[in-house]
User: Fold this.
Amino acid sequence: MFPTLTKRGSAARLLALAFAAAATVSVAAQPPAAAGAAPAAAAAAAAAAPRVDPQSWARATVPTARVGSVYLVLHGGAAEDRLVSGSTPVAERVELHQTIREGDVMKMREVPALAVPAGGTVRMQPGGLHMMLVGLKRPLNEGERIALTLRFERSGEQRVEISVREAPGHGAAPGAGHGAAHGAGHGAAP
Ligand SMILES: [Cu+2]
Assistant:
């Protein structure tokens, strides 16, 4: 599943075994258990990274759109991590945003980082947390997939592909109105 991590884990284990073989007799009794622990250690390292749920989606845009929104569903790994930034070939930059309501006005605030608790789930959604694709280079079309590289504070980069969809429950969903406010807010900004 994570070939690089597995490979690195095995290499480390081989070194450890070589060292153990050159060491004492009591260590020599351990290799079977240690060999079993190698994949476990690699799996633990992989399990520490947050996982991006395939339900994550990007909102389809109109042809003239200059911004797009991505809503990730992140499952925390064995350790807490923080999403700190992202990038995509389809936009100049990616920002983490939180939509907040001030009276009747929806505003967006940039968030420096998003904590993904160990074993927890963080669900971005219209009207709340989202990743903003600023300076869209082309429209996002329903049915396609876009590449997104996410940077986590502890576990590093993850490259994922996100499905482009229309907003769920068009019109009826609580997020539908927010999406409109969202685009308007951005268009009005300098
Ligand atoms: Cu935004």
The chain has two domains: 3-48, 51-188.
